[in-house]
Amino acid sequence: MRAFLFPGQGSQAVGMGVALADASRAARDIFEQVDEALGQNLFRLMRDGPDDALRLTENAQPAIMANSLAVFAALTREGNVDLAKAAQFVAGHSLGEYSALCAAGSFDLATTAKLLKLRGQAMQAAVPVGVGAMAALLGADVELAQKIADAAAQGEVCTVANDNDPGQVVLSGHRGAIDRAIEMAKEMGAKRAVPLPVSAPFHCPLMQPAAEAMQDALSYVVVEKPAVPIYANVTAAPETDPDKIRGLLVDQVTGMVRWRESVAAMADAGIDEFIELGGKVLGPMVKRTAPDVKVLSVVTMADIEALAKEIA
After folding, report:
1. Dihedral (C-alpha) 296, 238, 61, 39: value to the nearest 10 degrees?
2. Could you say which of 94, 99, 172, 297 is catalytic?
3. Pick the catalytic residue: 11, 203, 262, 297?
4. What does DSSP assign to residue 199?
5. Where does 2-126+206-311 sit in CATH, by number?
6. Residue 89 pairs with which residues in a beta bridge?
């Protein structure tokens, strides 16, 4: 049994998608359609940079989605792979949830691109630059991370943003609280704490204005039932109901990404092969959570052709 996974922010890099676009007409179509939907030459930014412009969350979010969906399009259109036959579930990390829903047919590509552009802009606007921060705790599980967050808060926001795997948890909140968490992490039992190079404190209550913006935007959007169930970030459970999915995408802006629990639940449900489309970020997290499963990262045309042959 198989699940397709879609990466989140942090997997962007200048040059992403270029070789794939050269090799695949289906991939080129995706990049062209995203550019048209957004009214910007996003693919040129992905190809040429500069890196600091690509890292801006309003560009990184649709760019990562476009790259994942280009891989998916090459696999399904040119590799003749049918998602509903090839996979039992889809899941995506944070913004990757939108990529997963687009792949499963809940959103069309243009809608997905516009939603992610807005999501990036709303998240950036929710908190002035410098007010918020994020940090990764390494060698800490979610229980220890919560204790560190509670000790560091001291009246400010400091919460668990991402429970990625048994030894990597991300905190988010006010910069002062995150700085305190980094200072006290080691003495409280974490191996180390690393500040993350992000422009806003994602997945914490400070993102409430962005959640409201997404609630408004999603209220105008048609959400179709996905071809296969999606494991939602905030429930770590499979969902197919369009109205429930719409609400969960709003909750996800301020809520914790329960990635470790999602992977463990999929493995418990019988998934023994996890395939990451368009990145190499999620595979190691999956392996640390479910050591016995098979993990594949599919990025290049050669990767796509090999997978299509295996699935066929």
Report:
1. 110
2. 94
3. 203
4. S
5. 3.40.366.10
6. 3
Average pLDDT, integer, range 92-99: 97
pLDDT of residue 10: 77
Is 297 known to be catalytic? no
Report the DSSP pairing between strands 273-277 and 2-6: parallel
| 203 assigned to active site | yes
As a whole number of angstroms, the distance between CA 235 and CA 248 comes to 8
pLDDT tens digits for range 259-278 = 999 999 999 999 999 999 99
| DSSP letters spanning 211-262 | HHHHHHHHHTS--PPPSS-EE-TTT-SEE--HHHHHHHHHHHHHS-B-HHHH
Chain position carrying tokens 């995203």: 34
Report the distance separating Cα 22 and Cα 27, nearest Å. 9
| Whole-number pLDDT of residue 11 | 73
CATH 3.30.70.250 fits 132-198, yes or no: yes
Q: Where are the domains of the chain?
A: 2-126+206-311, 132-198
pLDDT for 151-210, tens place per residue? 999 999 999 999 999 999 999 999 999 999 999 999 999 999 999 988 889 999 999 999
